[in-house]
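re: ur question from yesterday

yeah so i grabbed the chain u mentioned. its 241 aa long if i counted rite. heres the sequnce exactly as i have it in my notes:
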Amino acid sequence: MKLGKQIFITTVLLLVAVISCFGHIIDLETGSYFQYNAELVEVSPVVDGVLNDTPWQEVRGLGEMEQEIMDDTQWQGSSDFDGSFVAVWRRGFLYIAIRLTDDHLETHDTKLSQQDHLVVYLDPDHNGHKSDLYRYNLPVGENDRLFPAPLTAVAWGDDGQSCELMFNLGHLADKGNSVGFWIYYNDVDEGRLRHRISWGPAGYTIDDQLLPDLVFVAKIEPNRDHKILQWGQIKSLLGTD
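ran it thru and got these structure tokens back, copy pasting raw so excuse formatting
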């Protein structure tokens, strides 16, 4: 019995090692790949910071920001902070909507470390490892910063509790492809970093160097004979947010 257990443990460790070589992460609780899916949608959301677009209402399943990566514990959500996000894609673009609840926002300080801000990694080449080359620091409420490609648009809602991102990935945003992706929130209160809450598997910390997968999936089959109206054009015509 002991020998069988040792063989099983050795096999699992070898599997984790092999998977890590290819830049994938195993969720130790399930034994499966840890990944997040971006769903194909029939209409593109408008990147304006207001999460009332049709795609955000139809996509199933949110990515919960529930891993405290400062001390490797699970964040249960509280009045201090709660966060979730969802990703969709269409015609070469990846769109991410983020909803936050922070009881005390620290914004507009001269130092990034003194502000509440999101950190997003998106590695289009899927090298697997974190790099500052594809790290984006997004201070809460700031819409006027310019970011390097492939990030093309950032829009915060007026209350700083919602944000939309758009990445131009071209042919990479296609069914079955994947990119390296990670997101976490730096919660600063009274000038001090209190929490770092992330989307990630159990045990994932700021020191881990592998990036999880974000996979492009298509659960719909658009009808080519059906003229798809862009929701953004509708909103512009109606003059609504």
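noticed a couple things. Residues 1-33 form one domain. also Confidence is low (pLDDT under 50) at residues 8-22, 222-241.
anyway ttyl
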